[in-house]
Amino acid sequence: MFENLSERLSGVFDRLTKQGSLSEEDVKTALREVRVALLEADVSLPVARDFIKTVESRATGQAVTKSVTPGQQVVKIVHDALVETLRGEGDPGALKIDNPPAPILMVGLQGSGKTTTTAKLAKRLKDREGKRVLMASLDTNRPAAMEQLAILGKQIGVDTLPIVKGEDPVQIAKRAKTQAALGGYDVYMLDTAGRLHIDAELIAQAAAVRDVANPRETLLVVDGLTGQDAVNVATEFDDKIGVTGVVLTRMDGDGRGGAALSMRAITGKPIRFVGLGEKMDALETFEPDRIAGRILG
Ligand code: GDP
Questions:
Q1: Less CB within 10 Å around the terminal CB: N or C of the chain?
Q2: DSSP string spanning 85-125?
Q3: In the UniProt record, does the keyword Cytoplasm occur (predicted)?
Q4: Does the Cβ of 192 fall within 6 Å of ligand 1?
């Protein structure tokens, strides 16, 4: 569907004068193509613009190595700059879950993949780190969502907090906390209610739960295919609730992952995991290198 950036750039450089180093004009011309590639990958315009500026100053005047074409060289400079922007501090997969029972708060809009991701992450913690995990659904508006988490729990062999009708989310969070302590769990995960849009009630509820649980990690789950919307959602949740990391779902889809770059550049929050399918093991630690490659096509 997309023309490869390296191919596009070789075309551009074929038309330019051959020199020993990348001239300002070469770089400018090449970066026009890069900008188009970024926008096609759904990177937001201001982020693309800033990014191009950084790369421009870095690339201009660089000596062209014999072993690569100028086009390949620009692609490498762009790739490295993308990885730098995308990379957060430390290991994205290392969650702060010492001091058991460690609470993890899962937030996000309805349909983002929050419940699925909660279960995927619980499975990962169990299988890879040998953690005992308790999951609780706080979505009292949607009994089907609570049921869904219980079903997933059975499937992956992770306990879920029994459903008690009539409790509100804060009561459920308190019960999860008590149960996690009494039951000797290492981690308890709170799958908060989602809505189709962010509204005051959703935020107030998530904040009340946060205050009760005092989470070590608050992970925001966003649909990686929603581009700029995903970034707006992240900004809002971070302002109102405070998030410690982002999980981008549906990265197995057709999207080119530009939301990842905008997300990092605008919110500054680290991307911790990516969802790569509906199956319970389709969750991977975020790898900047892979997303950079994908954004460049
Ligand atoms: P929630 O409303 O945010 O809790 O969303 P769900 O966890 O119920 O997920 C909604 C749908 O998206 C389900 O059909 C999931 O199987 C699917 N889903 C979740 N994560 C991914 C992913 O990474 N890739 C794909 N392809 N589908 C996903």
A1: N
A2: HH--SS-TT-----SSSEEEEEEE-TTSSHHHHHHHHHHHH
A3: yes
A4: no
